[in-house]
Structure formats: structure tokens, C-alpha cells
Amino acid sequence: MQKLLIIGAGSVGKFIAYNINHFTQSFEIIGFLDDDVSKHGTVIADFLVIGSVDKLPEYSGKDIAIVWGIAFPTIKKKLFNRYQNLSFSFPNFISKNAWVSEKVIFGQGSIVYPGAAINYETVIDDFVVINMNCSLGHNCFVKSFSSLAPGVNLGGNTTIGDCVELGIGASTIQGVVINDDAIIGGQAMVVSSVSKADRVVGIPAKSIK
């Protein structure tokens, strides 16, 4: 069984640790790495917080998998870029209780929570978080590092750029494009495309940047 390091001992990392037997692949958890020094040496979700993320090079090249247990896209991307030259595998963590249609394509390192539904010909790029009870229509494209909070609903043919954050219960109509680094407020109804790094809220969603 492959060994696993969880990067981040917060809510996403704890979800992975507590539910490690509920995914489509099996792993043996080594522990957490987290930059919060107050957590070092403590036990969280039954596993030890070994130390800071800068310990990653000690585990490189040892056939170890890692998962970015971090919800915030920009932090996740920054850490990945810092350590991308190290040798690790990045499996996808897909809950056995998620529904994933045939003809869905995954990159690497994404996390899909229970209750999520992903329809056909959707593409999920690298290191995406799809939280509980999200619904992704057919032919959607979610680019790397983006994070979908619980209850997000994407109409068919929606495109989500890199490092986008969608708040709880946000929705899109079909064919919307949300460009890189945008933030969509909780319960927002997105009816037109969103510019790069914009912030939108409301029904219909409007920019507040």
C-alpha cells in the first residue's frame, strides 16, 4: 500500500485523514505537514503533525504520494510551484459516494467529496477541490487549483479558470466563463462571464471589485 503525506492539517486535510478508507484508492497515511508551528508534534484526526512543509524534500523520491489538503487556491498553487521539482505522485481522491459519469477526465491531485455529481465530458484539471453536494453539468471545464465550496452548481459548458474560488451554493447558467483568480460569493447566481481576478456577489451576480 502506498504511503501518503497530507499537506495541511486544516479542514480539507482532516477530511482526507478521517475518511481515508472512503476513497476509490487505498493509502497508508504517514502524517501531516503544516506550517502552523502550534500544531507540530500534535495528533490531529488520529495522525501526527510531523513538522513544516519545508520537510517535503526529505520524502522526495521514496514512492510517496502527497495530497494538498488546502482549500485556498493561491496558497496551494504557491506551495506546489515551490516544490514542483520534487519527486512525488499526486493521486486523485474521489469519494466512493460521489457520482462521476463516464467520459469525465481528471488531471492529478484533485479531491471530490461525497454527494458531488459530475456529468459527462467534463474535465477536471489538477489540484481542484469539489466539496460536498456540488453538481457539475456536462462539458464543464474546471482548471487547476480552483475550489468549489459545498453546494456549488455549474450549468453545462461552464468554464472555471485557474485559482477560482466559488462560495457555498454559488451557481452558473450554461456557457458562463469565470476567468482566473476570480472569487464568487456564496449563493451568487452567475449569469454572465466573470473577468480575471474579479469579485462578484448577488442574484444576479455583480462585480464589487
What does this structure look like?
It is a single chain. The protein has 2 helices and 24 strands. With 209 residues, the chain is mainly β. The strands form 4 sheets. The chain has an 8-stranded mixed sheet, with no helix packed on it. Strand 23 (199-201) and strand 24 form a beta hairpin. The radius of gyration is 17 Å and the shape is globular. The mean pLDDT is 97.
Average pLDDT number: 97
Strand order of the largest sheet: 6-9-12-15-18-21-23-24
The run of helices and strands is: EHEEEEHEEEEEEEEEEEEEEEEEEE
Distance between the termini: 48 Å
For the CA atoms, what is the radius of gyration? 17 Å
**Would you count the extended β strands for me?**
24
Q: Oligomeric form of this entry?
A: single chain
- Structural class call reads mainly beta
Please work out how many helical segments DSSP would assign.
2
Beta-strand proportion = 25-35%
* Major β-sheet profile: 8 strands, mixed
- Low-pLDDT sequence parts: none
Helix content: under 10%
- Coarse morphology: globular
